[in-house]
Amino acid sequence: TYLNYHEPDAAVDTLVHLCIPLVLALVSLDAMKLEGISRRRKHVLHPCESEAYFAFVRLVSMAGLYTDSLGNLRQRMGLFLGLFHSLEPDLHEHFEEQQVDPSDWAVSWLQTLLGRQLTTPCVLRLWDTYLADGGFDLHLHVCLAIMNKHRGEFEEQEHESLIHYLLHLPLELDMSKIVVSAQSIRVASAGMFSAPTGGADAQGTSQW
């Protein structure tokens, strides 16, 4: 339905990874509502299609993912990679040595809001924090907090295994600690980059 009314530049699988956690959350909410009414209903619950549609449109709009999406993504990538280079220089160097291109993983991290990389409970916990925070500005710092938290694991991996690890993060992530770390990183890095630059880092090339 969304694709019938919108023409985002993102691939369909990116939209799917955004949609699935949202639909599962709505299904869970419906189940909680009906549990008190009747415990005898065994059929699979389906959220109202219109409710799911407008919730998804709201999510995409709040995240600013597909408004001038190409330019938006370049800005986010430029800022994220700049912070990554400054805050995690050793890990950044390891990625360079292993020839891991930002397009292999960072684009997905930013576009799907980690909906592809994390388990559904972790994603819902994370997105709930974003909504309570009033937006998705914390997301870049959450990505950096994950890099910091699992620096050792990343440094143990070589090219192909490193990319696989980046796209399939550990199942058991303590999102509460990740969020606290992200908030600290946001405060510490405030003003470090007043605006994303248009240099090589922001162009999504293989150069870090």
Your description of this structure?
The protein is built from eleven helices and no strands. By secondary structure, it is mainly alpha-helical. The chain has helices spanning 2-5, 12-35, 49-63, 69-87, 89-97, 106-111, 120-133, 139-149, 151-156, 159-167, 175-188.
Architecture blueprint of SSEs:
Blueprint lengths: L1 H4 L6 H24 L13 H15 L5 H19 L1 H9 L8 H6 L8 H14 L5 H11 L1 H6 L2 H9 L7 H14 L20
Helix pairs in contact: 2-3, 2-7, 4-5, 4-8, 8-11
Features:
mainly alpha
Categorize the overall geometry: globular
Q: Characterize the largest beta sheet: strand count, sense, and whether it forms a barrel.
A: none
Going by helix content, strand content and strand pairing, the class is mainly alpha
Number of strands: 0
Strand content: under 5%
SS field, number of helical segments: 11
- Report the C-alpha radius of gyration, rounded: 18 Å
**Low-confidence parts, pLDDT < 50 over ≥5 residues?**
29-45, 195-208
What is the element string, with H for helices and E for strands? HHHHHHHHHHH
Spatial separation of the terminal alpha carbons:
38 Å
